[in-house]
Amino acid sequence: MKNLKHLFLLLVLVTIAAACKKSKTPSGYAYTIHKKGDGAMAKIGDAAFYDVILYKDDSLIFSTIKEGQEARSRVEDPKTAPDPFYKLTQEALLLLKVGDSATFIMPLDTFKVKPQGLENAKQAKLTMILRKVKSKDELDKRQSELKVLAESIQAAGPSFKARAKAVGDSTSTFAKDFAAGKLPAGIKELPSGLKIAILREGTGAMPKKGEVVLVNYCGATKDGNKFDESFPRGEPINFPIGVGQVIPGWDEGLMNLKEGTTAVLFIPSALGYGERAAGKIPANSDLVFYVELLKSVDVQ
Predict the structure, then answer these.
(1) N or C: which end of the chain has fewer CB within 10 A?
(2) For 289, phi and psi rounded to 5 degrees?
(3) Phi, psi of 16 (to 5 degrees)
(4) CATH number of 2-134
């Protein structure tokens, strides 16, 4: 009987050890599978839906579970990643099955420039849980459908491209007035510090978290310099709202607008890009966006 107990214990330990076996990513970073799923694996071009828990050494610094916002992104070829940390996330997504939970270890002592937020860390620990995968074919079909929808909206009114200069000039004026402390009448300020001026209110519903929104926009810094706009391209952008794929000021601002609304968002730097520069946007910049919420679509 004692031998049987010892054998059973040994089998349990072997099973646990096998479940927690350490492996290495293609770039050589160690990882451990904590829980094995039986779902599909993502391929390059697919959309992955996943939770991320990031540790700086042993200190938790970010968790999508804690934030209540599942991450989602297209899976890219790790070879094209702009930095080692992003490369690791793409390798991780390609290694996991739906239902898998794993922790990846990235030593940082050899980095010349450490990732933002990890400057004083010796290592980063990244736990990822793959929740769902959507195929590239499915995504491309959805993008085609959204493009047709955008074209039908444009056909019902003046050309987006034809309006580019007027919208750009208005956005620059709004930005300069904002810098001078001259805000539009009836502006609404939210507890986060985001300010919203409704220029024309739509009659549709407000978008729900996870729905795909179609948005025309023009963005400027407070000095009136435009840094990005959709109108000259002749096509609105689309993205899932409320899941962190855009700056926080956009997620919060657009979820407070009814479908069909035209508004100006006055976004404090903390809800924009914060202390980091982004293209033509200097660090610590307050931002002004003219936005048109054209449509919100449930794609689940």
Answers:
(1) N
(2) -125, 125
(3) -65, -45
(4) 3.10.50.40
In the structure encoding, which two tokens stand for residue 236, read together?
Answer: 């609105």
Other CB atoms within 10 Å distance of the CB of residue 193: 14
Cα(103)–Cα(83) distance, integer angstroms? 19
Residue (of 87, 86, 85, 91) closest to 124 by Cα position: 85
Tokens 């040994």 -> residue: 10
Partner residues linked to 129 by β-bridges: 51, 101
Residues 256 and 192 sit within 8 Å (Cβ to Cβ): no
Instruction: Specify the amino acid at residue 217.
Output: Y
Where are the strands (E) in 109-267, listed by range?
Answer: 123-134, 188-189, 195-200, 212-221, 226-229, 237-240, 262-267
pTM above 0.90, yes or no: no
Report H helices in 20-117. 64-67, 84-95
Q: Tokens standing for 125?
A: 């620990």
Q: Where in the chain is the domain with CATH 3.10.50.40?
A: 2-134, 137-297
Question: Do residues 213 and 238 touch, judged by C-beta distance below 8 A?
Answer: yes
CATH number for the region 137-297 comes to 3.10.50.40
Q: Map tokens 């929104």 to a residue.
A: 213
